[in-house]
Amino acid sequence: MSVRVVARIRPLLKNELDKDTIVTTDEADSGKAIPTVLRIPNPKNEAESFRFQFNAVYDQDATQQQIFDSEVSSTVKHLFKGFDTCVFAYGVTGTGKTHTMRGGKSLADRGVIPRLLSNIYRRSRKIEKDSGGATQVEVSMSYYEIYCDRVYDLFEAPEKRTPSGLPIRDNGGKTVVVGLSEKPCSTLKEFEQLYDQANINRSTSATKLNAHSSRSHAILCVKVTQTTEDKVLVSRASAIDLAGSEDNRRTDNNKERLIESSAINKSLFVLAQCVEAISKKQNRIPYRESKMTRILSLGQNNGLTLMILNLAPVRSYHLDTLSSLNFANRTKKIEVAEVENEPQYRNIVKPLGATASIGGATIARQPLRPLAGAHNANVADKEAEKKKSGDKPVKAFSVYSDRKTVSRVSNLPSQNQAARRIEPSHKRTADSHSTIASRPTKAARSDAGPRYEPAMSKASIEALISQRIEEKLAEKALQDAANVTAPALSAELQKRLDDLEQRIEIKEEDGKAQGLQFLLMAKQHQVRGEDVSALRMYQMAFPFFPSNDKLKNKMRNLEERIRTKREMENDRNSDAPMIPSSTTVSQKPSSLMAPIRPKPSNAYPAVDDDDFAPLPESDHDDDDDYASDASFRFRKGKPKASKKSAAPKRLPVFRDEDATPGEHTPRTSHLLRIINSKDVTKIKALKGVGTKKADAIVGCLVEMEDAEVRDLESLAMLKGVGGKTVENMRMGLSVV
Ligand SMILES: Nc1ncnc2c1ncn2[C@@H]1O[C@H](COP(=O)(O)OP(=O)(O)OP(=O)(O)O)[C@@H](O)[C@H]1O
């Protein structure tokens, strides 16, 4: 099943009433209750327009109620069936994301989130009532923001935050934030109090484009736990209000806002790269390059996913709107697997005649259903019935069956391979969770009527037990990780962390570290011939170096080059139809933000990037140590004559002094062979390279497509690698 993408065009704001409205629903859709096609003029030729098709398009007059009823309320049903759901708002700054997700205070103005919670509580009460109290529903939530690529708990006051934020980890295929608080809240009123208080903690500021601009991505995670006599079913609804991309030529942002803005733009850029990589079916999706993409895990998570694309109707947003539309057009093709969370059994139903000992405790096992067919628990009974009658089994919910996704999904043991689980920790005991303890004992319920008694092979049961143990170990590892922040942290480690934080802060203070990263990314894009992306990166770097004429020239040259290329393409395509269809829109460059295919390298004069490819300083801190191998010298590049002392650093220069000029020593050749093999395992085995660095190296190489690393200088230029790392890698090789 694909990500559902709907567009919402916001109404004109007071200060826009005299402005041109350029984004509308398509006239051809005028009879439809909910249009699906949106129209926007071609910025280069107003006589023609682009059409984009989505699952639904909501025009300016769409109400909050309409958006919720048509798009979100149905997800609540799935949530209670055990599916995770995710709704996120995407769009340029000031287009109405927060209005859509949070909304105003009046009943009519309430956004998706308060309505979602209201719906969840209503359904909970109904389930409890209909089951005569046999099913209890508990709702709890966590709420956090990603601000400047750091995760902060919004239930914590800002002054209590650790500057470095909360760590995130992968656990059983899901990304989790370690140390996040989870607040139980059982009524809408409680929710509103918590949510309002937390929103005060969220980072917002006034910018020229939005008086209450969100400076962070906000993620609300609502956990719904349904407990019956014998099982516990947990599912989660995520509601995400992404920060909006900003064109800093229009925002007049000050330095602090610029730093925030760059972090926002960078994460959205990574998100766009992920979406592009997914749509091109590339092996490597750069999720890990930003915390937001890691947490959103678009296309990786197994939930029902809805994206609300917020759009401003006015001309001043024209290019940004086209860029968002192109992004959304790609997103709608992303497939997500709908995988139901497995309920966990919390008591013994009937002994199988055998008992098992886990961790020393002897428990009678609950009969389990076969692994096959356990995937969709709610429909298993119906399937069995259908099978008996020879019909095709029915599914209450479609399970996406793309081969690639399935194999990925099947790698997530905690979600998919498991059938019914034995949950010793949930076994009812005197000291169990209060709601559990307050329930009648098993003995008292022995006449409670027939229970589900599926059969399961001994081998499957053993497999489940091992799996459960593994899960417990993973959970423990996660808890241990969380405890690292507790006093157990050694003084030395704490000092190192503090130093590191200080260094990052110092770098951020001079506002350059982030800028340099953008320049490096720009260069990488340019090397690959991706001029549009390179330009975007240079533009994002520009606020950090506003008086750098070279950078200005570089951007001007690139713009010129892109324009020339477009003109040449237009000339070539002059016979093509003037109004492209929605599908062609996404493939054709319709704005500066649209993707452009790499061009032959000799099509345009090369732009000299050298001044804009410095490595992070930390990579050069210990340059002097490099000369430990007699045959090998690392020298700093000679600083280029420059008026400013803060001139960017040059790339490191390596010399193989034992080698004939133009050749490498066997050691260097061997190292380059390993790197060019793109084999993460081999690269990871190099000295000083961990999993993260190895992934980053392979990621760079994959992005550079067929490019090979031909020398140590190029290797040192790769993202995350520096002179010292290269030296370590090389010196760690025993082979010559
Ligand atoms: N559908 C709508 N009806 C009425 N007003 C709206 C609507 N959508 C947005 N607005 C108004 O537009 C302004 C900007 O909206 P909002 O703050 O939600 O934008 P945003 O996309 O969240 O911006 P940012 O990314 O900067 O946080 C607000 O004043 C909001 O009240």
UniProtKB/TrEMBL annotation:
Gene3D superfamilies: Kinesin motor domain, Photosystem II 12 kDa extrinsic protein. Residues 377-455, 563-667 are annotated as: Disordered. It comes from the Eukaryota. SUPFAM superfamilies: P-loop containing nucleoside triphosphate hydrolases (SSF52540), RuvA domain 2-like (SSF47781). The lineage of its organism: Eukaryota, Fungi, Dikarya, Ascomycota, Pezizomycotina. GO terms for molecular function: ATP binding; microtubule binding; microtubule motor activity. ATP binds at G91, V92, T93, G94, T95, G96, K97, T98. Keywords: ATP-binding, Coiled coil, Cytoplasm, Motor protein, Nucleotide-binding. Residues 633-647 have a biased composition (Basic residues). This is Kinesin family protein-like protein. It holds the Pfam family Kinesin. Residues 380-394, 420-431, 563-574 have a biased composition (Basic and acidic residues). PANTHER family: CHROMOSOME-ASSOCIATED KINESIN KIF4A-RELATED (PTHR47969).
